[in-house]
Structures are given as C-alpha cells and as structure tokens.
Amino acid sequence: MTRQLGSFLAAALVAAFPLAAQAGDAAAGKAKFDLFCASCHGPGGKGDGPAAPKDPLPRDFTKGEFKYDADKDGKAGSDADLTLIIKNGAAAYGGSPLMVGWGAALQEADVQNIVAFVRSLKK
Questions:
Q1: Contact assessment for residue 8 and residue 97, using Cβ atoms and an 8 Å cutoff
Q2: Which of 41, 89, 110, 114 could be cross-linked to 101 through a Cys-Cys bond (beta carbons 3.0 to 4.6 Å apart)?
Q3: Under a CB-based contact definition with an 8 Å cutoff, are residues 99 and 22 in contact?
C-alpha cells in the first residue's frame, strides 16, 4: 500500500509540475545554440550574428521580450512558445520565414536545453 501511494504521489507531482520535469540545461543548450542559432542570433543572443538578416532583425534574447503566443495560451514568450518556434519555425506562428524550424534536427532534450540557454541571456 505504501509503495502504491508513493508511486501515485510521484505521478501526481510530475503531472502537476510538467515544466519542472522538462527543465533544460543552459550549458548544454549553449552548445546547440552555437551550432543552430548563433549564425543569426549571435553568440550572445543579441540578434547580431554574421548571417543575420537586416529585415527583420533576429530577436535580441538579452531583452527577454517575445512576440509570439505559439501555444495560444494568451501569454507570449512562455517556454512552450519558444519550444514550438524552435521546432516549427516562426512562420508557422505569423513570424518571419527566415527563422526556420529545427524540429527534425534536434532531440526534445536539445530543444529544452536551448530554451534554458535563451532564458539565461536576459540581462
């Protein structure tokens, strides 16, 4: 009975706090960011990478301001929004087609790690 109760409580906590279970590793995210994102967003996330288009400029992550509510929960810039945009590209949510989706190239953990790294850039 105690073992069943413990298993139930563990499952309930994971269900109640799914974001905690998916929290990424910012250090690991930096490595993937450098490979997939820095060419446009810049190594420091300021939108000043060597391949950055002039119009529209890539998002400056140091500002911590996000435009799209990809998951349609009424709040732009949640971790879920960033996850969807990284996977599917910004055009899928009304943004620039120059921000391509990387879902086919990245594992779920990689995406979560990139989100954690992006969050760490806010000044």
A1: no
A2: 89
A3: no
* CATH number corresponding to 24-120: 1.10.760.10
In tens, the pLDDT along 8-48 reads: 444 444 444 444 445 899 999 999 999 999 999 999 999 99
Output the pTM of the full model: 0.81
DSSP symbol at 75? -
Number of H-type helices and E-type strands within the chain: 6, 0
Beta carbons within 10 angstroms of residue 21's beta carbon:
10
Distance between CA 59 and CA 99 in Å, rounded?
Answer: 10
